[in-house]
Prior knowledge:
Blueprint: H1 8-20, H2 39-67, H3 82-104, H4 117-151, H5 157-173, H6 182-195, E1 198-204, H7 235-247, E2 252-258, H8 262-265, H9 279-298, E3 300-303, E4 306-309, E5 317-321, H10 329-340, H11 348-360, H12 376-400, E6 404-408, H13 413-421, E7 434-436
Parallel strand pairs: 1-2, 1-6, 2-5, 6-7
Antiparallel strand pairs: 3-4
Helix pairs in contact: 2-3, 2-4, 2-7, 3-4, 4-5, 5-6, 5-7, 10-12, 11-12, 12-13
Amino acid sequence: MITETASYCAAISEERTRRAKTSPVPPASTPVVPRLPGIGDALAAARTSLIQRIEEACETIRPVLAERPSDFPALPPTPDDSTALGEHADFLLDRYLDPFMRLVFNGEASVRLAVSGKRLKKVSRRLHDAVEEFDHACAPLADLAGTLSSEHPGFAPTTYERTAAALLVLAAWDASPAAPTATRTRSLLRSIERDGHVRLALFVCPPVDFTKINSVQPELYVRDHMHGSVLSRLTARLRELFRGLEDARVDVDLWTIIGDTDEDDYLWYGVDAPAHLDRLALDERREALVGAVARYLTEEIPRAGGNSPRVFDGRNLTVQRLSGLAPSTACRQVYASVLEAPLHRFEPQDIEAEKKIMRGLWKPNSYYQGLPEPDDTTLTSIVVRKFATYAMQGRLLRECEPDLVLIQTERPSLLRARMLSAGWDETGQDPLPTVDFFEPEES
C-alpha cells in the first residue's frame, strides 16, 4: 500500500494510542542479543531443508497408511509455524517412521510394508539429520525468546519468537557494535504483539541536481527518478536487511519518508532560493517522487536464484513526503529551543563536525554543486537549523509511530543519533530507536 497525506499522523494517532494501551508494558531491561551474521539465511536454509525432508517422509508414509489404514493415525498436514514444524517432524518419526522400522526389522516376525527397509532407513536418517540441523539453527532464536519471556512477561508465545527473530536479524545487520537498546526491544515486542509485524522507517533524500537552480525552470533541480541518487548507493545492503527479515519470517511494515523539507527547514536560511522558483511546480515534482520511490524500492531485479525486489517486496509499504506530516506543538517547541540554545543539547565539536561534513557537499560533483557556498558564519547558522530540524523530526516520527525503529542511513552515526534524540532530552521518554547502516565514528 502506498499513501501520501498531510493528515497521516492525525488519522492513525488515536487508533494506535488506543491499541497501545492494550499491550503489556515490559520493564526497561534488554537481553544481550548475539551478533550472528547470516542468521536469516541460516534459519531459511534449515527450514527449507526440514520441509523437504518432511515432504519426503510423507511420500514414504502415505503408501503404508493406504495399505494399513487402521493401524496408524491419519497423516496431519504440515504446519506453517516454525515451532510447530519441528514438532511435526518429531511426530512423523515417533508415530510412523520409527514404528515402520520396528515392523520391518523384527527378525523372523518382520512385516512386509509398501516401502522397503532400505528406503525407510534412508528417509528416517535424513529426517533425523534435518531436525538436528533445524534445532541447531533455531537454538539462538529459542534461547533469546526464552530470555524475552522471562524479562518481559505478559506477551503471547509467538510474539517472543518473532521478536527474537527480528532482534537477531537487526543485530546481525546493524553496523553499530553496541547491543540493541531496551527501547528497540520494547518497540518490537509491542508492535508484533499488536499487529503481527515490526514497524521500520527509512528516510530517502530527494534526488537533486542543483546545477539547474539558476535555469529558467529552477524547480527542475528536483529530479524525477532515483537512479544515481543517494538511495541507489545504499540498495544492496538494504536488500540484505530485508532479505534477512524475510528469511527469518519476520513481517515488516516499512514507512519510507521522502525528506523534502531540508531546503525550507535550514538550507534556504543561508542560501537564497531563486526568486522565480515556481513553488507549485516544485511541489508537483516532489509529489511525483512518491510513486518513483515506491517503484524503485520494489522493482524486481534479476539475481542469482531468480528475481527479487531491489529493496523491499512492497506488501506493507507506505511512501510519504515529510512535508505531509504536521509537527505537533511539542515538535515545533523542540525546533525553537535548539535554535535558541543549541549548546544546551549539543557540544561545539558537534557543530564543527557537521560544518566539515556540509562543506564537503559543496565540492565538485557533490550534493550541493551549483549552489553558492556560504561563508563560515552562515554555514554555522545552517547547521544549527539542521540540528533543530533533526531533533524535531526524531520526535515527530516517534509521536506518529510510537513503536517505530528507524533504519539510520546517514553518517556520522553517533552524531545523527544525538541529533534525532535531542527532542526527547529531559522528558524521561524513550527516543527513537535505530539500526545503523554505517559504523559509528570515533567518539
